Amino acid sequence: MGCNRKALVALIGSVLMVGSTQVLAGPSASAMANTCAGCHGTNGQSVGPASPNLAGMSEAYFIESMEGFKALPKGATHAEDARPATIMNRIAKGYSDEQIEAMGAYFASLPVYKAKVPHDPAKAKMGAEVYDSGCAKCHD
Fold this sequence. Notes:
The chain has about 140 residues and is an all-alpha fold. Helix content is about 60%, strand content about 0%. The protein contains seven helices and no strands. It has helices spanning about 1-25, 30-35, 35-40, 60-70, 90, 95-110, 120-140.
């Protein structure tokens, strides 16, 4: 019986150690990304025009965006967040830099999602011209 007791104590100890390691490690990037699904769609595939797709977004752009939402310039109040948004300012503040980096890598690893939405080719051409002249240097 002494041998079985030692084995049981060792088993319980190893289960507790594994469990505590998982708690300390925190949620996985995919688990954190699931919290984005309410607005940005499952796996970052948005189904509405108001929220951008996150699937396939570059890691650097995701991180930069989240840092912009999270940051408060020196001396600023909550209303003067670095990147204006309706809710992302509050959400981003809840994540550590490491968590944001992990989510950025996760979304970048997903294939780019192209939503099937109706579009006007003439407006798309005008938008491309605006992008080329004023946006591409930072958002290429």
